[in-house]
Design brief:
175 residues; alpha+beta; 31% helix
């Protein structure tokens, strides 16, 4: 026996992701699972060098997959910039991975427009990134341990410089 879902319920449920706002009072990651090996697509840095995630081994990496055409991604970028300024160093870094179709240049223009000063800029092919990291929407943020394994994942925007995020990441990194 099939059950009909009222149209308002269905439309309301479909609209929820469009209304998503960054969370403030809770830590971004639920930890405790087994760290998962993480494949790496080729990542292009601003100097034009191709890298992989193992180039960042030895420190925790907050890998944020984003695009300039994604409004929640654009809104969270200043908070990621402030997080990098606060916690970035030998033990931790924010790695924003732009997946704009035309390449690295739209992301660079966006950084310049809004005054991003502390974040590096990386680009990778959108399809390769989606296949490697198995995500559905943007932004998607992965927390990667110093051994290159995924230990946390957050789908959607977050206020990365909020106290809950800074406290959790500081505790994880040991700083």
């Amino acid at each position: 026996m099939s059950r009909r879902i009222p149209r308002r319920t269905l439309l309301g449920g479909l609209a929820v992701p469009l209304l998503a706002r960054p969370a403030l009072a809770r830590p971004p990651f639920r930890l405790g699972g087994e760290p998962q090996p993480l494949p790496s697509p080729p990542i292009l840095d601003e100097a034009g060098r191709t890298r992989r995630l193992d180039a960042f081994a030895g420190r925790f990496v907050l890998l944020n997959v984003w695009a300039t055409w994604c409004p929640p991604c654009r809104r969270e970028m200043p908070a990621l910039d402030r997080l990098q300024a606060r916690l970035g160093g030998d033990r931790f870094m924010v790695l924003p991975l732009n997946i704009d179709e035309p390449g690295i240049e739209p992301g660079r223009r966006f950084y310049d427009e809004i005054g991003i000063r502390n974040l590096p800029h990386f680009w990778a092919d959108p399809l390769r990134v989606q296949l490697a990291f198995a995500f559905v929407g943007l932004p998607t943020t992965l927390l990667v341990d110093p051994g290159g394994r995924e230990i946390g994942r957050l789908q959607g925007p977050f206020e990365w410089d909020a106290r809950a995020a800074v406290d959790q990441l500081s505790a994880i990194v040991g700083g």
